[in-house]
Write a structure and sequence with these properties.
It is found in: Mitochondrion. One of its GO terms (molecular function) is dihydrolipoyllysine-residue acetyltransferase activity. The pyruvate dehydrogenase complex catalyzes the overall conversion of pyruvate to acetyl-CoA and CO(2). Its EC number is 2.3.1.12. It is a single chain. The chain has 489 residues and is an alpha+beta fold. The chain is built from eleven helices and 19 strands. The protein has two domains: 208 residues, OB fold (Dihydrolipoamide Acetyltransferase, E2P) (Beta Barrel), CATH 2.40.50; 208 residues, 2-Layer Sandwich (Chloramphenicol Acetyltransferase). Helices cover 33% and strands 21% of the residues. The strands form five sheets. The protein has a six-stranded mixed sheet, covered by helices on one side. Helix 1 packs across helix 2, helix 5 crosses helix 6 and helix 8 packs across helix 9. The longest helix has 30 residues. The protein is elongated, with a radius of gyration of 27 Å.
Length: 489
């Protein structure tokens, strides 16, 4: 069911079933002017429900393509909901702060004529075509396509006949032209029409343009999306022996004091994915104590001459070092894709950087890190981490990645730890804190000196990275970090 449902005040001469559905629709909204129901959009591949954090528009406000009308909390971030049509907001059906709203459930109404706004003062969800649960009636599933096709075809044909001569002039003013079906598809998938190139008459965006746009970026993240979706469905309908229902909480003692914190959608998604990763991946770890003395000197030298233009962190240099090791051992920079029956080895290195946020762990991505310098990596990591902590990342900024880094080096108590692989990736690297280690030194007065070292632990998927290759990757990583001039090669 699309997130938009256009109501038409007359019945088209189509099949008998379609006619009956139109009559049924008129029964719901016969007392209201023509209008459109706005449903909760799916703003990420894993989103099945969301929360309305805030409305950016109020009733009566004019709406235009590309304008943000609400801030939606998805399973991973807080995102802007960009509207893709012209009109006026006639009614807000779901107030801000409402949680767990199913995708496609009606959340607002818009009209094309400002004079129609007052008519929707008492409009409710029950007045719309959709049920209050947000799910279409079962008996209309087979004919839903027919109804939408009939509505959009008749509307699109009439629109093209009456506006064909004026579209080229209107385009110059910046207005985006798209067919109703294309607008529905774009809104359902959270696509901004301004990013789509139209191939229809006079640059009009049609359904095929939206489908082509959706296919292009998903070629890179389809595996991640599939894995995430599979994770959600697997945990929600687990088979016996794989994930038994959690037992009820034991009764608390009379003297116990506690606080029950509700499980958020984001926290549930993270829990499901971590559980799927630990249950399904035959992982192993390889640890290495690596000297960072030369790396620290390089960082100090770079920052001392920066003139406040940049500030390189140890993590920035480690990210660059990982790209070098990943290019030398490409098996570690790969996906395990059982559905496609392939192991996908990437030539580019997109590094997922684990960032702790108040609502859970996010992994924004530094894309094509192998082709970026330290300054660019540093600025990008800071910007992504800043927006991750306020839930302002877009799905393409945290979904995907080819290899992951998790750094707890800022905590002096963490001398070594392991991380859980971010499916369908094959490698995640855990960076501990830097410590002083005594090493033999014949030139020193006491026969020893202190070296700055860090313990890095790689967790690998044995299905894609054999043990010898995991060891080779850590060897190459150690070599680059201990000789940071190799970053220039």
């Amino acid at each position: 069911m699309s997130a938009l449902l256009r109501t038409v005040p007359r019945i088209s001469r189509t099949s008998f079933i379609a006619t009956q559905l139109r009559l049924q629709l008129r029964g719901y909204v016969s007392s209201y002017p023509p209008h459109t129901i706005i449903g909760m959009p799916a703003l990420s591949p894993t989103m099945s429900q969301g929360n309305i954090a805030a409305w950016s528009k109020k009733v009566g406000d004019e709406l235009a393509p590309g304008q943000v009308i609400a801030e939606i909390e998805t399973d991973k971030a807080q995102m802007d909901f960009e509207f893709q049509d012209d009109g006026y907001l006639a009614k807000i059906l779901v107030p801000e702060g409402t949680k767990d709203i199913p995708v496609n459930k009606p959340i607002a109404v818009y009209v094309e004529d400002a004079a129609d706004v007052p008519a929707f003062k008492d409009f409710t969800i029950k007045d719309s075509k959709l049920a209050s649960t947000g799910e279409p009636a079962k008996e209309t599933e087979d004919t839903d396509t027919t109804v939408k096709s009939t509505t959009t075809i008749s509307t699109e044909t009439k629109s093209e006949q009456t506006k064909a001569n004026s579209q080229s002039l209107s385009s110059a003013s910046g207005r985006i032209f798209a067919s109703p079906l294309a607008k529905m598809l774009a809104l359902e998938h959270g696509v901004a029409l301004k990013n789509v190139t139209g191939t229809g008459p006079n640059g009009r965006i049609i359904k095929e343009d939206i489908e082509k746009y959706l296919e292009t970026p998903r070629e890179q993240v389809s595996s991640t999306s599939t894995a995430t979706t599979t994770s959600t469905s697997t945990t929600s309908s687990a088979t016996p022996g794989t994930s038994a229902p959690a037992p009820p909480a034991p009764p608390a003692s009379a003297s116990a004091t506690y606080e029950d914190v509700p499980i958020t959608t984001m926290r549930q998604i993270i829990a499901d994915r971590l559980l799927q990763s630990t249950n399904s991946i035959p992982s192993y770890i390889v640890s290495s104590d690596i000297s960072v003395t030369k790396l620290l000197k390089l960082r100090q030298s770079l920052n001392s001459s920066a003139e406040d233009k940049y500030k390189i962190s140890i993590n920035d240099i480690l990210i660059k070092a990982i790209t070098v090791a990943a290019r030398r051992v490409p098996d570690a920079n790969s996906y395990w894709l059982p559905n496609e029956k392939v192991i996908r080895k990437f030539k580019n290195v997109d590094i997922s950087v684990a960032v702790a946020t108040p609502t859970g762990l996010l992994t924004p991505i530094v894309k094509n890190a192998e082709s970026k310098g330290l300054v660019e990596i540093s600025k990008e990591v800071k910007e992504l981490a800043k927006r991750a902590k306020i839930n302002k990342l877009t799905p393409e900024e945290f979904q995907g990645g080819t290899i992951c880094i998790s750094n707890l080096g800022m905590n002096p108590a963490v001398s070594m730890f392991t991380s859980i692989i971010n499916m369908p990736q094959s490698t995640i690297l855990a960076i501990a804190t830097i410590k002083k280690v005594a090493i033999p030194d014949a030139t020193a007065e006491n026969g020893f000196s202190f070296d700055d070292q860090v313990t890095i632990t790689g967790t690998f998927d044995h299905r894609t990275v054999d043990g010898a290759l995991g060891g080779e990757f850590m060897k190459q990583l150690k070599r680059v970090i201990e000789n940071p001039l190799e970053l220039l090669l």
